[in-house]
Amino acid sequence: MERFYWSDLSEDRRKQVLSRPAAMADDKLLKSVRDIMGAVNSSGDKAVLEYTAKFDGVASESLLVAPEELKAAWDALPDADKTAIETAKSNIEQFHLAQKPQDISVKTMKGVYCRREARAIGTAGLYVPGGTAPLVSTLLMLAIPAKVAGVRNRIVTTPPGKTGKINQAILAAAYRCDVTAVYACGGAQAIAALAYGTETIPRCDKIFGPGNAWVATAKSLAAQEPGGPGIDLPAGPSEAMVLAGRKSNPVFVASDLLSQAEHDVLAQVICVSTSSDKAMEIEDAVQEQLQTLPRKEIAEQALDYARMIIAESRADVVDIVNRYAPEHLIIQMKDPDMLVPNIRNAGSIFLGPWTPEAVGDYASGTNHTLPTYGAARSYSGVTLESFIKYISVQRLTKKGLKNLGPTVERLATMEDLEAHRRAVSLRLEAINE
Predict the structure, then answer these.
(1) pTM score > 0.90 for this model?
(2) Catalytic sites, residue numbers
(3) pLDDT digits (tens, 9 = 90+) for 357-381
(4) What does DSSP say about strands 388-396 and 112-120: parallel, antiparallel, or unpaired?
């Protein structure tokens, strides 16, 4: 981990230190994703199957996973795995059930009534990465709130492995979460299928889920199309920032840094410490734990983007956090709750030595689909409301229109929109008559 002393850095250098790995959509990737999406839009299942064969090495005649395969996967799952899924499912359900919005109704003035009503989206496309790690937890984090919100069609796409089969634990979780259908495809072609629809995959109103640069680019392009689907948030390679004080346990800090570094070679981990001595202990602990990681090679490459920043004060620590806007923020400092009110930009926060980031990834109940690459400045992570839209309703009585009408007439006149003004004035004349 490269070390930096915050107080010694110029403003330009501070920006460089907090920059992300430059590996998102370059021109070549952008063109490739556009080509894939165009092919899927025009050729449907045929194009998706061809790209699945090309990129995943799997030749298949069908994208749909038979429902009986989902049940068989659940039945075959070891009891300990079933218990883990059930516990995570219960916690995630509880946290998201508590987020159910209430309809609101307001009388803004005499005779003018306004209300807001919630509606679940009709069809949600849930993208679950397969890649180097089958993310069972992502399926739970997307399928559970979608069902709690009342989404009727909950469509999962996930890439098959080299055997041609989807990971059995993902299928088991899909069965337990009662998804509508599972399709064996991943990458940009899966996002395109969810965006446009194919002969077998329905067009989705909104697409959810993290992924690599191909997936993130495809989601972004799909959302830009006229009438295209919504997306949950920008979600690229994973990242974590750990705040460490003088009394932090270096073994705990190192484990949190490595738990993100093992995700992806482009994952970024940053430690901010108020003690140079503690920083050295953490760096040593990272190297020691790294040696025995099964995914050592991935984590080692990710550590090329890692940073160790020495800050002189808690005010500087907060400034660094808000500048970087981390996906995950782990606070292992004295009185961590005291820092929270000043933190404006973070996807999810983990407080104290007994709250590893991994609990949020899997089973505490909060959602782990979070904004990356600085998007936490303007985006929240996935919530129940991510699957909900709102409809506003208004009703005026005659008295209400008499009270409000002159204001509307005046504003319409200011904007030179005569038809708007007449829509009110004609009614007021009718009332007066």
Answers:
(1) yes
(2) 327-328
(3) 999 999 999 999 999 999 999 999 9
(4) antiparallel
